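Follow-up to my post from last week.
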Amino acid sequence: MMTNPGNRVTQGQFSFLPDLTDEQISAQIKYALKNGWAVSVEYTDDPHPRNTYWEMFGNPMFDLKDPAGILLEINNCRKTFPSHYIRVTAFNSTRGVESPTMSYIVNRPKKEPGFGLVRQECDGRSIRYSVHSYATDKSEGERY
Amino acid sequence: MSDIKNSDTVADDAKVDLEAEFNASNIQEVLDKLDRELIGLKPVKTRIREIAALLLVDRLRKKFELTSDTPTLHMCFTGNPGTGKTTVAMRMGEILKRLGYVREGHLVTVTRDDLVGQYIGHTAPKTKEVIKKAMGGVLFIDEAYYLYKPENERDYGAESIEILLQIMENNRDDLVVILAGYKDKMERFFQSNPGMRSRVAHHIDFPDYSAAELLSIAKLTLAKQNYRFSEAGEKAFADYLVLRMKLPHFANARSVRNALDRARLRQANRLFADAKKKLSKIDLITLEAEDVLASRVFTEGRTDADANGA
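User reply:
Got it. Predicted complex:
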């Protein structure tokens, strides 16, 4: 049985939905800006679920009022890394929170090979399981 | 989104109500406020009215699906110091927002320091960051002629101008750029940057204020701070203005504001020095002739600031 038939990586918000249009992305950014969160653009070609820290595309953008500037940056990133995963993160700097409050993928490779299950035999007859991204078999930059 | 657009348009033979649209935009309210709070500045107000009319008509044309390019609204304000360039720019954001031309209508004020970097590769990100902050509103570049320094060909200002030009052309929907500066220097700036001149559609010149206008400005400023002149005080201030306008470093409304600040200082001092310790409200809000006449402009023929060596 295939658990994820489209073989799409499902991380962050909206990842079970069809890809967001630019208009929808703008609306989400607008919501983040309304709440005073700093929005940043990040990219990676290693979408392992435990790979928390993606590369930053430019600095996080503080004090913006309008989503147009961030959309500009997203499109720049898409142009530079057309087949990487790109996500938009909103950071809430309120004291005591200080963590990302929104995060969603805005660009993904055409073909996502997905993840394989790796079984490791260890002491006795016990088995350890781990997840392995097929894409990472290739070297960085050639994965997608 | 396209469905919504279609429901907004009307048939070719339909009539649209200009007045209703005008009232709906609340633009009259903003224009009235402009008339009330800004003294003089006739050419500026006329141009703002024209721009408002153009945007309104554009909106009606859209209802008939008569597409035209979004008009370029990049502006250049020239004029002497203190003629209200920044104040009008601030209003511009509000007006353009009411007319639906910009989305947020905030004003980002920058000078050369905020746009131009200090080493190779520093300028582009710096300029872009400022532009991103201004998107959806108005980017006000004060003393814009400093951006271009012809005497130093390795100056990074040119790089900043290039990025600005690109954004002014490609992101017309996202932000309005207003350049400001003294007339002769801006003229030279445009001469050496013809691309900039052609992208700035509106060149608005801010005239100097007359003495009568300055007095009205003074009274308006005082009213906002809950002060007022006594009759003699007003006369003294009118005399003061005539003298002050002849002195160097006269900065129109800004000089008036500074003069008023000093008059308030002297009024407070006078109230202290007076033997009378029970003060009425009238005492507290009235600037007397002596508060104004104590100025060095009268006694020594120079400004207080000059006398202090500042």
